[in-house]
Design a protein that fits this description.
It is globular, with a radius of gyration of 20 Å. The chain has eleven helices and six strands. By secondary structure, the protein is α/β, with parallel strands linked by helices. 50% of the residues lie in helices and 12% in strands. The strands form two sheets. Strands 1-2-6-5 form a four-stranded mixed β-sheet. It has a two-stranded antiparallel sheet with strand order 3-4. The protein starts with 8 loop residues before the first helix and ends in a 6-residue tail after the last helix. It has helices at residues 9-19, 28-37, 39-42, 46-62, 75-86, 144-152, 160-170, 184-206, 221-234, 236-242, 244-254, and strands spanning 64-67, 102-106, 110-117, 123-130, 132-134, 140-143. Helix 2 packs across helix 5 (75-86).
Length: 260
């Protein structure tokens, strides 16, 4: 078979994009019902809400949502999950959906087996009960019960779906390190400010002092970023008071937080 010259590769890519089915639009009734159940979405300006609607349609077109352990999800609940997962993509865009294809949803918190070999070569194993998890190049996993709990108290500082989506954004540059893909100058400023805030926060936690945000953020730089993301959407004033530089970076990256 004759081959196209190298200069035709962009043409082939354009053709493949043209042949690929485009995401459909979301049903009006399902979309409005999802907005009514999602306080963060209902609080968005109309233009950003429409942007989120397009992202959610793309999510449903590209991702398989698989309920597990007897859980059943209707069409409205699938739209709700898609919209919730796309909230962190309002400014970043659909590129934030790259690298994975499946959302797994358990009815409740799920258990995973962990293992770690310490410096002495001793293997330690334990079980973790999780509300969510994001594999580097695999599925995103959520507990439906925890999603529901977040919806019932949207200003409490918790949103497991955006937490796990923050991890998906974080790893797009190949490193899960608390810094998503950014232009070079901003990357340097982000890394400097987040590292300073993270070290100060860890010192508070290590000293046993009460912290304004969930102490789980001290687990690792990537968890600090993901927890701060939750607060950006669900308790932005608290985050801005506790960590103004972090809050400013997140407002630039995610756009202004919803006015709950």
């Amino acid at each position: 078979m004759a081959q196209f010259p190298a200069g035709h590769v962009p043409l082939i890519a354009t053709l493949l994009r043209w042949l690929r089915p485009r995401p459909g639009s979301l049903d009006d009734t399902l979309w409005h019902a999802a907005c009514a159940r999602l306080p963060w979405v209902a609080a968005l300006e109309p233009e950003r809400r429409e942007r989120l609607r397009a992202l959610a349609a793309r999510f449903l077109h590209e991702k398989t949502i698989t309920p597990l352990a007897g859980l059943q999800l209707d069409d409205g609940e699938r739209v709700l999950l898609a919209a919730l997962c796309c909230l962190p993509l309002l400014e970043f865009g659909a590129a934030g959906l790259r690298g994975w294809s499946q959302l797994l949803v358990y009815p409740d918190a799920f258990r995973v087996r962990r293992s770690h070999v310490d410096a002495a070569g001793v293997l330690h194993e334990w079980d973790d009960d999780l509300a969510g998890e994001a594999w580097d190049h695999g599925p995103l996993i959520l507990s439906w019960a925890d999603v529901q709990a977040d919806l019932e108290d949207p200003a409490a500082g918790y949103c497991v779906a955006v937490h796990e989506m923050a991890h998906k954004l974080d790893v797009l540059d190949g490193e899960l390190d608390g810094t998503p893909p950014l232009p070079a100058r901003w990357h340097r400023e982000w890394a400097r400010d987040f590292q300073r805030a993270y070290e100060a926060f860890c010192a508070q936690v290590d000293a046993g002092r009460e912290t304004a945000i969930d102490p789980y953020a001290a687990e690792a730089p990537e968890e600090f970023f993901a927890v701060a993301t939750e607060y950006h959407f669900s308790a932005p004033s608290l985050l801005a008071e506790a960590m103004p530089e972090v809050a400013a970076h997140l407002a630039r990256f995610y756009g202004p937080p919803p006015a709950l």
